[in-house]
């Protein structure tokens, strides 16, 4: 399936307006969340992995003890695409606010 093109700065900004837990720009979307424990954070990564595999679109993940740093970018497009906005929405449905 063809991958969607990267979005303009205005379109990324518009997408972020419906993703209040995220920040970023055309270089990437970012969210940091603290989970209850290290095992809980690993379990969250596993749940995110299932969504990423289903979408064939994967986050950049950095876990420091209970703090999970997520960055979403479309590497093949060297920017943020609609897939990143959709993945952000699906991650928000998995994680505590
Ligand atoms: C072959 C496979 O479809 C590609 O490598 C996918 C995998 N997941 C991906 N995830 C992200 N974030 N960007 C990509 O360009 C990408 N490409």
UniProtKB/TrEMBL annotation:
Gene3D superfamilies: Transcriptional coactivator/pterin dehydratase (3.30.1360.20). Signal peptide: none annotated. GO terms for molecular function: 4-alpha-hydroxytetrahydrobiopterin dehydratase activity. The keyword Plastid does not apply. It catalyses: (4aS,6R)-4a-hydroxy-L-erythro-5,6,7,8-tetrahydrobiopterin = (6R)-L-erythro-6,7-dihydrobiopterin + H2O. The keyword Glycoprotein does not apply. InterPro entries: PCD_sf, Pterin_deHydtase. GO terms for biological process: tetrahydrobiopterin biosynthetic process. Its EC number is 4.2.1.96. Keywords: Lyase. It is an enzyme of class 4 (lyase). It comes from the Bacteria. Belongs to the pterin-4-alpha-carbinolamine dehydratase family. This is Putative pterin-4-alpha-carbinolamine dehydratase. It comes from Geodermatophilus nigrescens.
């Amino acid at each position: 399936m063809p991958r969607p093109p990267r979005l303009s700065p205005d379109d990324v900004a518009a997408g972020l307006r419906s993703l209040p837990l995220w920040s970023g720009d055309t270089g990437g979307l970012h969210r940091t969340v603290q989970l209850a424990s290290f095992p809980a954070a690993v379990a969250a990564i596993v749940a995110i992995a299932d969504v990423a595999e289903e979408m064939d679109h994967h986050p950049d993940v950095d876990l420091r003890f209970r703090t999970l740093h997520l960055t979403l970018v479309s590497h093949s497009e060297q920017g943020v695409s609609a897939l990143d906005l959709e993945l952000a929405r699906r991650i928000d449905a998995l994680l505590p606010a």
